[in-house]
């Protein structure tokens, strides 16, 4: 048994290229982390099933029980943003910090909005970034706010979840482009599931003052994690992969992967149990706007580069402020596939193809789980080394074991 947690890098090959298996995906960390915050805000009674084994969810569960003054959100964006709203409005005195990268991920939009609502938040380092000291809520602030929605939807989700607790509720007017919109809808859907009404019309979201009600909720498997299995099916010689538990009517915007992959070589059959993926012909050019599903961009760039599909993509502005600068990380890593990714006009990126000349690949992961998971399927083409494989723990800790289940040979690498 290999301890993937301890490895500096690992080597992947797939001797047959034939994939036939049923894979139990981890539960969605996005759904789980909303449900945990709502459960904490509603007091007793919320019953959550299938909570994710993802570190982001395990961490939030631990932190919500912690009496420590200093709270470390590590590299988890939802944990940082959701706890900021939660501690601020419940008046808990906390110092909230994270990894070095987390302290470079902006939080000003959320902090400004919470201050207007009556929160007391002080930056302990650079203005606009964690770490922060939170405490002492005076709940008589202005409850009608204008909030920028073009940087991160997590600020909006954080505000919405505490909205029902505010004495006069909350009215948010979203300014600018609405990025990652399905994540805002997911927040509202889960709030409704726990008995709270909210209205989203045009650019305005209204959440009256109300109480969350107890309910039970079973977290759906993670559609973002499913995207790597789509990639593997597309690159395999033969494949039939079942992903039980996924729903066609999902709260997760990343279920868009089913539609995307119609063009890129995978047929999705929705069954009573979940989905069944099989191979179909792919197109040779693909254009897509990732504004609603930014976490799928790395999967699609790596896959198109490997399959020789030219790609034009937009809606990827937020990629620069995630676990790493994902645009830059992609630009560097696809060089070994002979490809380049260039911004051709403002916000429009084009993947230019080249010849794959290497007999094997080695990919760096930049402390970003999605770099590791998006490039690993390329081991179906050439022996592939993935550096710092432990990054997958953020959302999909059993990823490497699941690859072994479908016949990948996964060994420790010297590199
Ligand atoms: O709310 C959420 O659960 C998330 C929202 C998205 O972030 P942005 O809103 O910052 O794009 C997404 O990239 C992230 O993985 C999870
Ligand atoms: C961007 C991500 O997560 P977060 O922003 O929650 O750290 C992600 O999981 O791809």
Automatic annotation (TrEMBL):
InterPro entries: Enolpyruvate_Tfrase_dom, Enolpyruvate_Tfrase_sf, EPSP_synthase, EPSP_synthase_CS, RNA3'P_cycl/enolpyr_Trfase_a/b. Phosphoenolpyruvate binds at residues 29, 77, 105, 154, 326, 370, 394. Pathway: Metabolic intermediate biosynthesis; chorismate biosynthesis; chorismate from D-erythrose 4-phosphate and phosphoenolpyruvate: step 6/7. 3-phosphoshikimate binds at residues 29-30, 34, 152-154, 180, 295, 322. Its EC number is 2.5.1.19. It is found in: Cytoplasm. This is 3-phosphoshikimate 1-carboxyvinyltransferase. It comes from Pontibacter silvestris. The gene is aroA.
């Amino acid at each position: 048994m290999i301890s993937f947690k301890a490895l500096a890098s690992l080597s992947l090959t797939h001797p047959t290229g034939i994939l036939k298996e049923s894979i139990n995906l981890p539960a969605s960390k996005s759904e789980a982390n909303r449900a945990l915050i709502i459960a904490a805000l509603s007091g007793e009674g919320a019953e959550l099933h299938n909570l994710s084994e993802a570190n982001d969810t395990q961490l939030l569960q631990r932190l919500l029980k912690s009496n420590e003054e200093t709270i470390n959100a590590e590299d988890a964006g939802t944990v940082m943003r959701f706890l900021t709203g939660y501690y601020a409005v419940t008046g808990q005195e906390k110092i909230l910090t994270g990894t070095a990268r987390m302290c470079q991920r902006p939080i000003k939009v959320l902090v400004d909005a919470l201050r207007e609502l009556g929160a007391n938040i002080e930056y302990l380092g650079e203005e606009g970034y964690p770490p922060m000291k939170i405490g002492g809520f005076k709940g008589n602030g202005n409850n009608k706010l204008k909030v920028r929605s073009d940087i991160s939807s997590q600020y909006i989700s954080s505000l919405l979840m505490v909205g029902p607790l505010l004495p006069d509720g909350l009215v948010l007017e979203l300014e600018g482009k609405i990025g990652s919109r399905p994540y805002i809808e997911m927040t509202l859907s889960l709030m409704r599931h726990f008995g709270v009404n909210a209205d989203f019309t045009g650019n305005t979201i209204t959440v009256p003052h109300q109480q969350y009600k107890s309910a039970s909720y079973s977290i759906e498997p993670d559609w973002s994690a499913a995207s790597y299995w789509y990639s593997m099916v597309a690159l395999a010689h033969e494949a039939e992969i079942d992903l039980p538990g996924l729903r066609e009517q999902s709260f997760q915007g990343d279920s868009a992967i089913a539609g995307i992959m119609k063009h890129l070589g995978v047929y999705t059959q929705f069954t009573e149990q979940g989905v069944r993926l099989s191979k179909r012909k792919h197109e040779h050019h693909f254009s897509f706007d990732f504004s609603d599903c930014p976490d799928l961009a790395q999967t699609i760039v790596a896959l198109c580069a490997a399959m020789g599909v030219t790609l034009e993509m937009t809606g990827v502005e937020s990629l620069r402020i995630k676990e790493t600068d994902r645009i830059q990380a992609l630009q560097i890593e696809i060089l070994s596939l002979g490809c380049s990714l260039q911004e051709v006009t403002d916000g429009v990126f084009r993947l230019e193809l080249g010849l794959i000349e290497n007999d094997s690949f080695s990919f760096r992961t930049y402390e970003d789980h999605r770099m590791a998971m998006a490039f690993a399927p390329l081991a179906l083409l050439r022996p592939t080394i993935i550096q710092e494989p432990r990054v997958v723990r953020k959302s999909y800790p059993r990823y490497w074991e699941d690859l072994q289940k479908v016949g990948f040979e996964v060994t420790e690498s010297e590199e």
